[in-house]
């Protein structure tokens, strides 16, 4: 197919997807995300942008995912994925915003032409895109808009159908950097290659250790339900019963249920089990989010206290296991952990003092964590909310996969490391891959959740939202832990924090919601709540709080 850009064709197609005048779109931390009915023109244009990006990168395949993750079912969103499976490069986020906001069809053409000229894009280059969607009812209509965009810019598009976000990331990477698949539809291949890879790696990582008790998985009534079911079947086809998952909240066809009173975000924020799950002390459970790229684990202890094993706990488990294997193997590989300011203070202290591993703190948003993690041979990164993965550098992969002349013990450790490099989805945080590697570590250690949890005790913490007139006036530094503006506010926060044992609090504008977030922790829940609501009250009173002062603010 000749793939030159036909601007008249784009203009004609664009007329069917006029921009909604009153809306100002921003490609934020998680791409474009809002009520689904506002997104058609945006997604049409994202199809065009994907074509331009592919042409710019010498015909490499670009991924596009239509999802709004843990948001309510009525929302939707879209994000682009670069050829290696990473998030879209930052400069192009700006182009995405410009394209989405072009008012008329002529403006749109002008923006496209400026992107072409700024980037020296060869318009005649071949280009291709693969795209997928989650289970939201608005998905098919938005896919149709995307396909119109892809057609308008005359590039090849491959529809993967319903997939988890990490599957789309992995398949995009696969098409660009692995053997080209010989036959079969992309929709089927994107499942098969994924299941095959992770099922085999899981068996390698588990070895012949005895398996654990069943784990209940709350799939948030999202795409994780069918995908995990198939993945588990694939795993148990190789060796029956090695992974026993009981999937709940698996109804992907029922209106309004997606992420409703269930899912990783609900459990993490509310510190309680999802709808449909009453836990006994023996039960192990985990929750995915709506597009299956986050996971948190939990159980109730012998006092019937709910215990959450969040992203910080996953990072500690993974780092501890990998460090031990690296030591035993005798390989010269460094390990580092990357967190954000939301990581619990106890987890930070445990990593630095007990595991003696370097810990970096970066601004919120997976792309910052991912990039920082690339600086280590093995970079473990997790947001407290359960989104994260482990990256092995080319240097580390080379050492792990070509180590020779070792003792039996070293050999065993190296084999485990090799298995982990395959078991972990290194393109992006992946709830299903994370589930498998957590289970593999626990199986190797023969640990209960309680043993995993005992590494350190979380400091009580509280996250509060404050609605303000203009969140753009909040400027931070020091990986978002210190406010620079509004001037003088940080000093006042510091004075409050100083009144509490183990007190810590910081304030930052959200990148995904029109609110300012206040985080606080302290040695008791009572102190921590008091600190959080005092800081929230301070922000409300001194920095343009609006919509009524919530009664709990102090
Ligand atoms: C405190 C918190 O959980 N923040 C979330 C949230 O970002 P905010 O910028 O805080 O709105 O959404 C991001 C995208 O999903 C996620 O990466 C991040 O961890
Ligand atoms: Mg998600």
At a glance:
Mg(2+) binds at residues 69, 289, 291, 293. This is Phosphoacetylglucosamine mutase. This protein is of the alpha/beta class and 554 residues long.
Classified in CATH, the superfamily of the largest domain is Alpha-D-Glucose-1,6-Bisphosphate, subunit A, domain 3
Measured distance between first and last alpha carbons: 65 Å
From the 3D coordinates, which CATH architecture of the largest domain would you assign?
3-Layer(aba) Sandwich
Mean pLDDT: 95
Structural class: alpha/beta
Radius of gyration: 24 Å
What are the low-pLDDT stretches, counting only 5+ consecutive residues below 50? none
Distinct small-molecule ligands in the complex = 2-acetamido-2-deoxy-1-O-phosphono-alpha-D-glucopyranose, magnesium ion
The best one-word shape is globular
Strand order of the largest sheet: 1-3-2-4-5
Which range does the strand content fall in? 15-25%
> How many separate domains make up the residues?
4
**Helix coverage percent:** 40-55%
Report on the biggest sheet. 5 strands, mixed
């Amino acid at each position: 197919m000749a793939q030159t850009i036909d601007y008249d064709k784009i203009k004609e197609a664009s007329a069917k997807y006029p921009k909604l005048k009153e809306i100002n779109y921003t490609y934020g931390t998680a791409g474009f995300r809002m009520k689904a009915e506002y997104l058609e023109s945006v997604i049409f244009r994202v199809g065009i942008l994907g074509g331009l990006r592919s042409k710019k990168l010498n015909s490499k395949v670009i991924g596009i995912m239509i999802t709004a993750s843990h948001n309510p079912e009525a929302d939707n969103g879209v994000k682009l994925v670069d050829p290696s499976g990473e998030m879209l490069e930052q400069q192009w986020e700006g182009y995405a915003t410009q394209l989405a906001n072009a008012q008329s069809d002529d403006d749109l053409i002008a923006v496209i032409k400026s992107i072409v000229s700024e980037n020296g894009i060869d318009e005649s280059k071949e280009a291709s895109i693969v795209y997928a969607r989650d289970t939201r009812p608005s998905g098919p209509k938005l896919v149709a808009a995307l396909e119109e965009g892809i057609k308008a810019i005359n590039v090849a598009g491959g529809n993967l159908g319903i997939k988890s976000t990490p599957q789309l990331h992995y398949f995009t990477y696969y098409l660009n950097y692995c053997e080209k698949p010989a036959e079969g539809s992309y929709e089927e291949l994107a499942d098969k290659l994924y299941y095959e890879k992770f099922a085999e790696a899981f068996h390698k990582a588990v070895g012949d250790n005895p398996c654990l008790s069943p784990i209940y998985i709350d799939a948030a009534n999202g795409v994780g339900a069918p995908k995990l079911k198939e993945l588990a079947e694939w795993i148990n086809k190789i060796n029956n019963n090695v992974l026993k998952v009981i999937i709940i909240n698996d109804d992907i066809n029922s209106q309004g249920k997606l992420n409703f009173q269930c899912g990783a975000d609900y459990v993490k924020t509310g510190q309680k089990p999802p709808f449909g799950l009453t836990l006994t002390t023996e039960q192990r459970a985990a929750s995915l989010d709506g597009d299956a790229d986050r996971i948190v684990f939990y159980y109730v202890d012998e006092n019937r206290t709910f215990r959450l094993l969040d992203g910080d706990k996953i990072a500690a488990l993974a780092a501890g296991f990998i460090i031990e294997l690296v030591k035993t193997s005798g390989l010269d590989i460094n390990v580092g952990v990357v967190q954000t300011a939301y990581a619990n203070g106890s987890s930070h202290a445990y990593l630095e003092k007990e595991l003696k591993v370097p810990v970096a703190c970066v601004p919120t948003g997976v792309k910052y964590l991912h990039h920082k993690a690339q600086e280590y041979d093995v970079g473990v990164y997790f947001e407290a909310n359960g989104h994260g993965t482990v990256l092995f550098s080319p240097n580390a992969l080379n050492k792990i996969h070509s180590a020779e002349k070792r003792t039996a013990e070293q050999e065993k450790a190296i084999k485990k490391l090799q298995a982990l490099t395959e078991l972990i989805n290194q393109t992006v945080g992946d709830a299903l891959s994370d589930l498998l590697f957590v289970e593999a570590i626990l199986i190797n250690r023969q640990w209960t959740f309680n043993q995993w949890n005992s590494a350190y005790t979380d400091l009580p913490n509280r996250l509060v939202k404050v609605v303000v007139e203009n969140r753009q006036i909040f400027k931070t530094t020091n990986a978002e832990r210190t406010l620079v503006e509004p001037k003088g506010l940080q000093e006042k926060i510091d004075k409050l924090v100083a009144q509490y044992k183990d007190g810590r609090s910081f304030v930052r504008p959200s990148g995904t919601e029109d609110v300012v977030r206040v985080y606080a922790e302290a040695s008791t829940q009572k102190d921590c709540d008091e600190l959080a609501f005092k800081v929230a009250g301070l922000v409300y009173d001194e920095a343009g709080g609006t919509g009524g002062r919530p009664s709990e603010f102090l």
